[in-house]
Amino acid sequence: MEQDVNAIAVVTLFPELVMAVSSGGVTGRAIDKGIVALSTFNPRDYATDRHRTVDDRPYGGGPGMVMQPGPLVAAIDGAAEANRSITSCDPLVVYMSPQGRQLNHQLVIELTEKRNLVLVAGRYEGIDERVVNTRIDLEVSIGDFVLSGGELAAMVLADALVRQLPGVLGHESSAEQDSFAVDGLLDCPHYTRPELFNGQVVPPVLLSGDHAAIADWRRMQSLGRTKQRRPELLNEVRLTRKDQQLLALYTNEDGSKEPEPK
Ligand code: 9D3
Prior knowledge:
Number of helices: 9
Distance between the termini: 64 Å
CATH superfamily of the largest domain: SPOUT methyltransferase, trefoil knot domain
Low-confidence stretches: none
Order of helices and strands: EHHEEEHEHEHEHEEHHH
Oligomer: single chain
Bound molecules: ligand 9D3
């Protein structure tokens, strides 16, 4: 039995869409390294009728179709058991759903604790509520906008999760360096060569070689941009006196200074 593997199984009618996560990038490398096992389970493979039906009309009428409980539960149970044989852990079954708890960094971190994850991606109008009642531990939404199904949401969650697992990122870009992980602030601006591009120069401090001044400038940019763009995030952050000084010195992107609070 393998140790230290995180098994993520996605229950989906569109497995080829979900497996795009495994080709390339940080998540692809994590799979190649054996840190994560990603698999898909298709309810259609568990359908028992001649046409492999997985959806039916909603009781009570109305538009669209609903995923039938039979093939879906069989696929979820198959996924949970396959993950158990990889991890020896009990599953957490997550339904990607517009009615779910909205995904954020905190929830991603919570889910990295679960070695056996089954992500259920719905299609049509959704899944039969009795599947939610009997199989789903948690419902997760990725935000207040309408997708065509749960697959992209499951991929978003899988990507965010995998990059937090130990050994996935090199220390040059460790997960702790991420925006929202460095005490909940937005990232600072980045520059690379050339020094002059389309009439715009690189902020001189970044060319100064003064590492303390560079760190201060980056911190100031993070603080200032967070205050400008996502002020609500600052309510969750404890600012040092130095932070408050840097924030007071911050100049907006339009060159104007922050208006002083009255
Ligand atoms: C237009 C259909 N809507 C009728 C009022 C309901 C609806 C059903 C199925 C809306 C979206 C979906 C498919 N979405 C997901 O499966 C989904 C989702 C999303 O749409 N937004 C944010 N997070 C998620 S997680 C899964």
